[in-house]
Amino acid sequence: MTPLPQRREQPSPSPLVGLRHLVAGALRPAPGPGRIVLAVAMGLLTGTLFAAAVLAMIVAMATGLSGGLGSVPWPWAALANAALIAQFPLLHSLFLTRRGRAVLARLVPGPHGATLATTTYALIASVQLLLLFVLWTPSGIVWWRAEGVALWLLLAAYGSAWLLLLKASLDAGAEVQSGALGWLSLLQGIRPVFPDMPEHGLFRVIRQPIYVAFALTLWTVPVWTPDQLALALSYTAYCLLAPRLKERRFRALYGERFRAYQRRVPYALPLPRPRAADV
Predict the structure, then answer these.
(1) Is 250 within 8 Å of 197 (Cβ atoms)?
(2) Is the dihedral of CA 93, 163, 135, 63 positive or negative?
(3) Which residues of 107-129 are buried (b: 16+ CB within 10 A; e: fewer)?
(4) Cα 199 from Cα 207, distance rounded (Å)
(5) What is the pTM of this model?
(6) How far apart (Å, rounded) are the C-alpha atoms in residues 231 and 146?
(7) Domain map of the chain by residue range?
(8) Are β-strands 144-145 and 223-224 bridged in parallel, bridged antiparallel, or unpaired?
(9) What region does 74 belong to: left with phi over 0, alpha with psi -120 to 50, or beta?
């Protein structure tokens, strides 16, 4: 396999337009059978695990984490479950540091590790989520299970939260969130081009719609157990704090443009900004 040519494309003003161009270009892959096989294999593996992880999350949280396959005896199960909760945000955030990104680029041997970094990142995240929701050891305690009208209302809220998360992910650049950016770029023999700083769609309303939408999925479930409460509290804290690190990277990358966006758009709640802060 040969290294990628030193070619870049200009980012599209719309993530959806950029994604369409990326997919259209992948239909005409650049010559190089070894590179093509690697790209398609990584795409299939990551896409399959990503879909499985999302499905596992939806089902597991809808049942209040009452059906995990873990069988660690209590009270040791509490430590095992805590480790499953902690491993996702810790490793997920570690790979976003400068040193973590360097490690991520070397996880796929050969000359294409850096190109596949976003795909590898999504692949690892999918495995982490599968471990969390499949290997969870349930407490066996159910505090409350919605019935009748309450069940349908909560299912509607839960489904709406997931649709909101999907919308926010599309606004941010679905190719990055799903890991498709890496393998689709490799298929074409080009360097990955990240979507521009998101300012449209839900990002016009708040700066962190992905984290807020995910937090909403944690609290709109129709079954409440100690397991679900532990997950909801832990990951809501993560959703409030982790974007601070993301915004630090955005300030370094976009400078005054991002600072103006911060002054113009609220962090997590769509509250009116003071007039003095308006740009």
Answers:
(1) yes
(2) positive
(3) ebeeebbbbbbbbbbbbbbbbbb
(4) 8
(5) 0.87
(6) 19
(7) 15-270
(8) antiparallel
(9) beta
pLDDT tens for the chain, 279 residues: list them.
Answer: 333 333 344 444 566 677 777 888 778 888 889 999 999 999 999 999 999 999 999 999 999 999 888 899 999 999 999 999 999 999 988 888 888 889 999 999 989 999 999 999 999 999 999 999 999 999 999 999 999 999 999 999 999 999 999 999 999 888 888 888 999 999 998 888 888 889 999 999 999 999 999 999 999 999 999 999 999 999 999 999 889 888 998 998 899 999 999 999 999 888 776 654 444
Q: What are the structure tokens assigned to 116, written together?
A: 């596949």
134, two tokens: 């499949």
Tokens describing residue 179: 């890991």
Question: Tokens 């700083």 appear where?
Answer: 197
d(CA 54, CA 33): 31
d(CA 41, CA 187): 11
Q: Where do the DSSP E strands lie in the chain?
A: 144-145, 223-224
